[in-house]
């Protein structure tokens, strides 16, 4: 699936990924390939990007991301809130 994470200041990530986990207002949820279309509001928390079969180069990565201490192929981004849309295997996150 293709993931774009955008803030008012910049595009933080634009890449193919395996899956993404986001902090929905009713709890954390994960989206995989062929997930049903969805639009959801995000709350404060962490976005986790799983890149096991689609590695992301550190040079292409915003300094806002960290790598999970247990698995370096999981990227972590803290957000204050936002909106996520999933449609046709493309996820767009508008993050605060």
Task: Describe the secondary-structure layout.
Blueprint: E1 2-6, E2 11-16, E3 19-24, E4 27-32, E5 38-42, E6 45-50, E7 66-67, E8 74-79, E9 82-87, E10 90-95
Parallel strand pairs: 1-10
Antiparallel strand pairs: 1-2, 3-4, 3-6, 5-9, 6-8, 7-8, 9-10
The biggest beta sheet is recorded as: 5 strands, mixed
Q: Report helical residue fraction.
A: under 10%
Instruction: Give the overall pLDDT as a whole number.
Output: 94
Structural class: mainly beta
Q: Spell the H/E element sequence.
A: EEEEEEEEEE
Number of helices: 0
Strand order of the largest sheet: 2-1-10-9-5
What would you report as the Rg, rounded to the nearest angstrom?
12 Å
Compute the number of strand runs: 10
* Poorly predicted residue ranges: none
Q: Name the assembly state.
A: single chain
Strand content is over 45%
Cα end-to-end separation: 22 Å
Shape verdict: globular
Protein architecture, described:
The structure is a single chain. By secondary structure, the chain is mostly beta strands. Helices cover about 0% and strands about 55% of the residues. It contains no helices and 10 strands. The strands form 2 sheets. It has a 5-stranded mixed beta sheet with strand order 2-1-10-9-5, with no helix packed on it. The chain has a 5-stranded antiparallel beta sheet with strand order 4-3-6-8-7, with no helix packed on it. Strand 9 (about 80-85) and strand 10 form a beta hairpin. The radius of gyration is 12 Å and the shape is globular. The model has no long low-confidence stretch (mean pLDDT about 95).
